[in-house]
Amino acid sequence: MIAGQRLTNDRSMGLLLLVLISFGAMVRAWLAFNNPYPSVDGVFYMEQSRQLLLTGQLPFSSFPPGWPLLFSLPLAFMDCSNSAHVLLAAKSSNVFFGSLLPLLTYFFLKSRTGSGWAFFGSFLLLILPMNLLASRGDLSDMSFSCFLLTACLLTRRKLDFSGGLLLGYSYLIRPEAGLIAGLLWLVHLCRERQIPWLFSLGNFSIVIPYVVFIKISSGQWSLSGKGSFLVQSFSERSANQYLQMLVENSGKFFGFVPELLGFPLILMACWGLWIEKPRWVVFLAPLLIYPLFDFAMAHRYWLPYLPLIILASWYGGRDLFRRLAEKLAGKWNSKLLVTGLCLVAVLGFVQTNVQYLPHLKKTTESYYGLRDAGLWLSAYVDPETKVAAYKPYASFWAGCSFVKFALDETDPVAIVDDARNRGAKYLIANAMAIYRFIPELAPLIRQPVPPDIASRVKLIHARQYESEVQNTAIFLILDPEANRE
Known about the structure:
Blueprint: H1 2-33, H2 40-55, H3 66-75, H4 83-113, H5 115-127, H6 129-135, H7 141-154, H8 161-173, H9 177-192, H10 197-218, H11 227-235, H12 239-261, H13 263-276, H14 306-327, H15 334-353, H16 368-377, E1 386-389, H17 393-398, E2 401-404, H18 412-421, E3 426-430, H19 431-437, H20 451-454, E4 457-463, E5 472-477, H21 480-484
Parallel strand pairs: 1-2, 1-3
Antiparallel strand pairs: 3-5, 4-5
Helix pairs in contact: 1-4, 1-5, 2-3, 3-4, 4-5, 4-6, 4-7, 4-14, 5-14, 5-15, 7-8, 8-9, 8-10, 12-13, 12-15, 13-14, 14-15
């Protein structure tokens, strides 16, 4: 009788979750289609996908190919030469993965916590503002979250071929999954005194071909196209400067997680990890390496690990409530436990996430001057044409190659010459980008252009807007030596 009632409750809860996920998918789709601009990193992912479908070859990039390969599937049924279609493929794929994540989280949590906390944890991720933001964009957060969580499910009891394969593909999306696979391999070796051959075969069948691809493309052995970033982080500063950067990054990065879930859940999660010491804690290991890199820390790096943190908070909260019940000489009740945990978690979650709701109304960087310039330029370029700019938006919309301005130059003439020497045919000057990031090129958006620059570029098109910071000029890069002759 009790088992039948529990089965009925589980089915009702599962049905309610599916309804909520369906509604969440519609919200994600609405947010995605009202966000018509790409992100900087998203452009490089989308260019990989476009080049793969146009040429049949995967281009080498510091951005790993796992995410572009995924949204190449819907893009194959669209016009991949149309930048709007490429962006649509990436965003629609993120809507799918962002909607799938709460469902995977439910199954992940249910076998460990029961359906009550599993439903609650899934609902938190369904409505989490940062998840909604990631689901409407063009980055890899949601796909990596789904693959990593599925790999965690598959490796729960044993390390087999499927778990190795899933972690291998997770590595193609983000290389930090390789750290998880390596740690799982070592833990298994130490505990079982044998090598997990099937797990290794599944993992290496994806990892080794990609490592060979990096070697052929870059000439260097590396586990990631981003390996040079860590080398630069070390080499460009002294030991004291690097230590200072590490402390600052760590403070920022680990301060983000209470802002996502609230302090009550995080405190319970810390206690849960301390008392349980679960094997799946190795899936949290990549969180320790993000502060090592010299790039901006971001909330979104935490998103793939939130299901694990929610599970840890269950362990911690359960223990704390049991201890409290014992002190009060009361009888511990599972329904009371779940209700109490959910109430405490909701209060902290709501308090910290209200501040992010206004961000849902904002679009990704709205450089519509660069978009319009790129669309105009698309009639005059081919995929091999190189366009120099600070941000890659104009070249993305034009469907051609991007050359970034030399940021180590302070002379505008040297910046133009460097762009020409690297093969750029056109130069894009956007008022917002120049005023914010590269003021050395301010002469390009003023009239008249100084003679030493005017001999190197020719204005061929200008876009002017009511908001002057969107004003954008397109220049044809000239050869000053040819002009002199």
